[in-house]
Each structure stands twice: as C-alpha cells, then as structure tokens.
Amino acid sequence: MSYPEISKGLGKLTPDLWGRIIRMLRSFESNEGVSRDSRPSERIYSDYFMAKLTGCSAVSGTIRWQYSFTEVYSEGSQYAIPTNAQTGTVAAGTAAYNLCEMGNSGDLVGTGVDMGGIDYPSGFNMMPIGMTADSFDPATSAYASLDVNVVVMMFNVNTATGTTARVFFAGNSHDGVCTV
Q: Which one, of 52, 65, 48, lies nearest residue 151 by Cα?
C-alpha cells in the first residue's frame, strides 16, 4: 500500500515523526509475511505469548526459581493449548525465569519484602509462583506440578550469546503458618 509523504509538519506531527509512523505501519502490516487472520489454535512464533506455568525448581543457592511452562491461548475465560505450543522444562534447560525474582538477594526480594525483617512473620516463606503454603516445603527444591493454574504473559528474549530465553513477570506471594 502507498502512503503519502509530508514535507511540512502540523504542530508536533513533523515529517520525521510521520516517516517513523509510516515505517511502523508498514512493518505492522507486513508482519514478516504472517497473516493476522490465522486461528489461535495454530501457533505462530511471537516475541510474547500466554503460558501456563506447570512446575518449578529452585535455582541453587538463591531465592529464585526456574519454571516449566506450556504455551496457551485464550478461549474466553478459559485457555487451551495450541498445536505445536512452545514449551520449556527445567530438565531440558529451557525453563523460564521470573523477572521479579532476578534481583532477589539474601532476605530482600523483588516485591519489596525483607524476609529477615523483624515484622516478617515467623513460619512464612516466599512462595514460587503457583505454590501455596499447604504443599510448599522449603527443603524441597523441585515441584513437578503447581497448586494453582497460573497463566502469565511470557516473552522470548535474546541472550548475550544469541540464544533465546523465556521470561515473565509475576510478584511472589508470601505464605505460611503464623506463629505468635
């Protein structure tokens, strides 16, 4: 499709800004030859996608977790797994990481909680995403399934070595048995 070029601006709409908008529009419309009319049940590789977390494993020596996942798509208020869904597992080295956990160090966690603080309840722990205190044991380092079906927005990102990593963002809950 042909779009007009402008040589004079109109307020904040300058020729440079107009050119950027047209380039973005052309890029969006071309979408690298992939039709936007495809059915969601037929997976199309994307920089981001919905994923159901399916398990987790502690990253040794940290208060961080690796998460297994399966790509899903929305069917109203439910989700379904597309054909050829992207998946990741701890065992295969393709697990996803929670960006909120990446800065965790010592007792300080990404949600702004000081787990070593005097106000942190005794008997509480930071839960991996999808786990509850009913089945969480700090001595257990891996869970093949999660207590809660959690769907997150997952992102494919490039690493410094050129491989693809999967990341998402979710705030961890803190739960446990209150002891007074």
A: 52
Mean pLDDT, to the nearest integer, of 57-62?
87
CA distance 1 to 110: 47
- Phi–psi pair at 115, nearest 5 degrees: -70, -15
* Cβ-based neighbour number of residue 90 at 10 Å: 20
What's the pLDDT at 171?
Answer: 92
171 alpha carbon, distance to own chain's centre: 11
**What mean pLDDT comes out for the span 159-168?**
87
What is the distance between the alpha carbons of residues 67 and 58, in angstroms, rounded to a whole number?
9
Side-chain half-sphere of 6: how many Cα atoms within 13 Å? 14
**Minimal CA–CA distance to 175: which of 122, 138, 132?**
132
Helix (H, G, I), strand (E, B) or coil at 151: strand
Query: Phi and psi (nearest 5°) for 43?
Result: -60, 135
Share of the chain above pLDDT 90, in %: 32
Residue 158 region by backbone torsions, left for phi larger than 0, else alpha for psi between -120 and 50, else beta:
beta
pTM of the model: 0.72
At 128, list the tokens. 């991996």
**Greatest alpha-carbon span in the chain:** 72
Quick check: 120 pLDDT over 70? yes
Q: Which residue has the tokens 């995403």?
A: 129
- CA 102 to chain centroid, in Å, comes to 12
